[in-house]
Specification:
Elements: H1 3-35, H2 43-70, H3 85-93
Length: 102
């Protein structure tokens, strides 16, 4: 594995995944609380959380692109990040093409 790309992947992809998960959890809790009330406490907050989910997904895709490059694949394989955690598992299960080069 190419360590340069692996480090970049870790520094970009991890915050993206965390941002995505935290925003989803908060948004779901707001939706559950809104069922007994007259709706969301603030529609602007809901839009902001959805923006956080999108930003997290973009960061995760970039991070997984670097992870794919670290394993010797094309960066376009990082688009499996659209699948979030499933995409991460798919990339993690792929064999490392750079193992024989080192």
């Amino acid at each position: 594995m190419i360590t340069k790309y692996s480090r970049i992947s870790l520094f970009v992809g991890t915050p993206g995944l965390l941002l995505q998960v935290v925003c989803i959890i908060i948004l779901n809790r707001m939706a559950i609380n809104a069922l007994g009330q007259n709706g969301f406490p603030s529609p602007l907050l809901a839009v902001g959380l959805e923006g956080g989910i999108l930003a997290g997904n973009i960061l995760l895709i970039i991070g997984l692109s670097y992870y794919a490059k670290a394993k010797g694949y094309t960066a376009y394989l990082g688009l499996v990040g659209v699948l979030s955690c499933i995409g991460l598992v798919i990339l993690a299960l792929l064999p490392d093409k750079t193992k024989n080069l080192q």
